[in-house]
Every structure is written in C-alpha cells, then in structure tokens.
Specification:
Number of domains: 1
Strand order of the largest sheet: 2-3-9-6-4
CATH architecture: Orthogonal Bundle
Bound molecules: protoporphyrin IX containing FE
Oligomer: single chain
C-alpha cells in the first residue's frame, strides 16, 4: 500500500554536477565510478538526470534488497536492459516479470548441482590447457586470455566438445564488439542510436553473426537427440510441468535467446572477474605466495580437478574479494510496473531505479578499509546478503553464480600452480567502465615456476620463494572514488 503522506520523487535530492540539457550524462560517461562513488554520501535515494529522463539511485543496502526481492513491482527494465534486449530478445535475464517464472523454471535444471560437477571437470581441463599455453616471461593481455578461456569453457559446457577454432574466434570477436557497444548505446540518445556510423555497422554485423553462430549450433543439436549432459541438452529437454498441458518446451527462438543469454551473461563477467583476481594477486605478492602454498598443498603434484574445489579456501576468498572490489555488474536498473513507495518516497509507475553493487561494496561503514584487497576479511564472515551483491539478489539473482565461482576458483588455481604473476609498468591500472567493470587492456607478466625449481628457489612442490616486495595496490582507487567522498534468496516479500 502506498502511504499518501509519503514524499514524491521530486523531493529526492538531485545529485550535484548536472548540466541543463545533458543532465549527468557527461560525468557518468567521463568517469562513471567517480560519479557513482560520489553518491555514497546519500544514505537513501538520490536523483540523476540523463538528458530529458531521470533515474533514482538507491544508495541504501536494505532498500536495494527490497527492490531486488520485489520483482513484481520493480521489474527488469531501464536503459541497460533495453539495449541488451536488442541482442538477446526475451531471454531469462531480460524478460519482463510475467514471463520470468516460467523461463527460470525451464532453465534451472541446467544449473542443478549434479550438472555443475560435470561442468567443473570441463573448467579444470580448460584452465590447465590455458595455463600450459604460456611461455616464461610472456606479457599477457590477461583479459583477452581469460576471455578465450571462459569462451572455450562456456562453449564446452554449453555445447559439449570444442568448437572449430574458426567458429570459436569468430564468436569471441563478435562477443567483444557487442558487449563493448552496450554501454555506449545506452548513453546515446534514442534519436542518434540508429545513425549508421562505422561503430553501429560493426555492432549490427557482430550481433547478427553471433546469433547465426548460435542458431547453427542449435539446429545441429535438434537433429541429434542424444543427451550430451551439457547445458544445451538440458535446455532442449526442459519441460514446464506447470504449463497448461504440463508438456510445454522451449521453442527454437526461445532456445536461441537462452543460449545467447548464457553465453553473453557468463563469458565476459567471469573473464573479467578472473582478470581482476589475477591482477590483485600480481600486485599483492604476499597473498599470491600464500595462494601458491595452498595450491601446492592441495594438488600435491597431481592434476587439478573438480574434486579439489572444497579445499581451495584462499582461492575462493580471493575471488569473493575480487568480486567485491570489481563487481562486473557494477550497476543495474529496474523499472516500476506500478506506483510504489520506497524509503518513504512515492515513485510513479514507469520510474527508473539504479542499483549499484560498486557503490555499496566501497562504502567504509559497510566494509572497513573498503579499497583494500583483503581476502581474509571473508575468513570468518559469510558475505552479507544485503551489502555484498555481485550476483544481485532475489528471484532475478544470477542463475550462473555457482557455475561462475567454480570456474573462477579452478582457473585461478591452475594459473597459480604453474606461474608467478607480476604487474607490467608503474602506472596504476584503471577499470574501463562499460556495461561491466572491464579490465580491458590489463597486462600481466608470467614467470614459469619450474624455472625456480631448476634454480632451487622454490616451485610447485616446494612453496615458491617470496616475490619482490611492495604490496601497495597500484589500482587508482582514489581516482575511481572521485572528489567526494550466498545463496538462497527469499521469495518476494
Ligand atoms: C562472475 C560472473 C558473473 C557475475 C558477476 C554475474 C552477475 C549477474 C548479476 C548481477 C545478475 C542480476 C542482474 C539483475 O538483477 O539485474 C545476473 C543475472 C544472470 N546471470 Fe549472471 N553473472 C555471472 C556469471 C554468469 C554465468 C556464468 C551465467 C550463465 C552461464 C550467468 C547467467 C545469468 C542469467 C541467465 C541471469 C538472469 C537471471 C534471471 O533473471 O533469472 N551469469 N548475473
């Protein structure tokens, strides 16, 4: 029920720095993290303007959780999802509330724990292969490397078996073009979005070709009814028992949308998480050394496999902390399906809300010393469901959260088992803010630990020597902060 005495959205404070016509588009485009962090001083709601439209940013963890849990009122929508819908239609992550429950029921079996075990075996193998492909002294574009790893792993778990190299590299480059265009297109006024610039042509070409690649794979699978125990088989065989005749399955078009959703939703986010985690290890040699010790102890000279996952405590905490500092989905949007009251403010149907894990994860009152990389903050503490939200929450929480965590922990372990990581250059590395918090362009140097073995300074069986000193994190968090200052979620309340 809406309280008629509640204030209206017009009474919500307007963020400073807006311009008459553009609103806050310029600071948001120029330095989105600085802008979003500058709002953390507002403890409830704050308004921002993007050209003629305005949105309300939710700065409070309990209000954020309330919005997540009540998807009947606060539906998927807003500029990010409108752009993503251009590519994946009404897939699970973009569909509106009335379609969502059924789609989630159909997709959920693909992420059943029994299936996850099989996927983790694929992750372990793909990670070992990736780690074995580097050479001592290589300087790596680590995001690109992790993208090829997660593309391969996603393709194999989704479509069982490696795809031809040419299909793989085409899918990879098309995905990169599509994903990096989302944020730019979100910020571009509607009237200019259709202008056939070279960038728009590249984007259209990439999204059509990516869809065609996925549809081709699905057509092959439809012709072959064997259960391949992969994600696509589960989707093809999924039956909605709550449908009218209890038999309803996904159509070809729905299948393509879901496959593309998993592909786009899972690949880049996990690759970025891994790149940030490796970067944090490279710049915090003390943690890296401890992780090497954990890895060597757990593997005991054998090959990494999925059964090692429960023993990889520090690797799991490193991934958890990387997701706190650099949540790939740094902001999400919602659109009101009806009038509602939030935090004592009346909001009209159609209003846009912005939710930001980055804003909450960097608040000093919620996370002591919030800019510090400290995996041990998770030693005795379970992530709090209201303040730690890299996967969102509620009915729309990431369906691939455990899939991604398993993949990231195994990949991190495979890399550390074989390589020492160090940063390249002195300059702090700044995130590239797009729809996701990207690590694009991040370089890392790898040194073969077996060289240490030969020199007798350490190595896989002997806990490697301490790398060079200097644990200050070279990521420019201050610049990002600007001048101003798991699991099971309840059903909707
Ligand atoms: C570290 C990696 C990942 C991160 C940080 C991440 C983050 C998120 C977040 C924040 C949401 C909720 C968005 C919102 O409420 O607006 C979400 C939803 C979703 N994610 Fe992920 N994700 C990751 C990996 C994956 C993977 C591996 C898959 C699939 C294989 C996946 C598939 C999805 C899907 C389908 C949804 C929509 C769920 C629904 O609406 O029911 N994600 N993800």
């Amino acid at each position: 029920m809406t309280d008629t005495n509640a204030a209206t959205a017009a009474s919500v404070p307007l963020a400073p720095g807006g311009l008459p016509l553009l609103g806050h588009a310029l600071p948001l485009l120029r330095d989105p993290l600085a802008f979003i962090s500058s709002l953390s001083g507002y403890r409830g709601l704050v308004r921002v303007r993007l050209g003629p439209t305005s949105a309300v940013v939710v700065c409070d963890p309990d209000l954020t959780r309330h919005v997540f849990l009540n998807d009947r009122v606060y539906d998927k929508g807003g500029p990010i999802y409108e752009r993503i819908r251009e590519v994946i239609g009404d897939g699970l992550s973009t569909c509106a509330y009335p379609l969502h429950r059924r789609q989630r029921r159909l997709c959920q079996p693909s992420f059943h724990p029994a299936r996850l075990t099989g996927y983790s075996a694929v992750f372990a193998r793909a990670s070992r292969l990736k780690a074995a492909s580097w050479h001592d002294g290589d300087v790596l574009d680590i995001t690109q490397e992790m993208m090829t790893l997660t593309t391969r792993a996603t393709m194999e778990t989704m479509f069982s078996g490696a795809l031809p190299a040419e299909t793989m590299s085409r899918a990879l480059s098309d995905t990169a073009v599509v994903v990096s265009a989302f944020f730019r297109r979100m910020m571009t006024p509607a009237a200019l979005r259709g202008v056939p610039t070279p960038g728009k042509r590249r984007y259209d070409h990439a999204r059509h070709r990516l869809s065609a690649t996925i549809e081709g794979i699905i057509a092959e699978r439809r012709a072959d009814p064997t259960d391949h125990a992969d994600l696509l088989s589960t989707l093809v065989g999924a039956v909605d028992e709550e449908s009218q005749d209890g038999q309803r399955q996904l159509s070809d078009g729905e299948l393509a949308d879901e496959a593309l959703t998993f592909f786009l939703g899972g690949m880049e986010t996990t690759a970025i998480t891994l790149a940030w985690a490796l970067h944090l290890l490279a710049t915090h040699p003390d943690v890296q050394q401890r992780l090497r010790a954990e890895t060597d102890g757990v593997l005991a000279g054998g090959d990494l496999d999925a059964a090692h996952l429960p023993s990889l405590g520090l690797a799991t905490r490193v991934v958890t902390e990387a997701l706190r500092l650099y949540p790939p989905a740094w902001m999400m949007t919602r659109r009101l399906r009806q009038d509602a009251e939030l935090g004592g403010v009346r909001l009209a149907s159609g209003s846009t809300l912005v939710l930001s894990p980055y804003l909450l994860h960097r608040r000093g009152d919620l996370f002591p010393d919030p800019d510090r990389f400290d995996p041990d903050r998770w030693l005795d503490a379970q992530p709090d469901r209201a303040t730690y939200i890299p996967f969102g929450a509620g009915p729309r929480k990431c369906i691939g959260d455990q899939f991604a965590l398993n993949e990231a922990v195994l990949a991190l372990t495979a890399v550390v088992a074989r390589w020492k990581l160090s940063p390249v250059g002195e300059e702090p590395f700044r995130p590239k803010v797009e729809t996701s918090l990207s690590s694009r362009g991040l370089l890392l140097r790898v040194a073969d630990r077996r060289q240490d073995d030969a020199g007798g300074t350490g190595g896989p069986q002997r806990h490697a020597a301490v790398p060079p000193q200097g644990t200050a994190c070279p990521v420019d968090h201050r610049a990002a902060r600007g001048a101003a200052s798991p699991r099971s979620d309840a059903a909707p309340e």
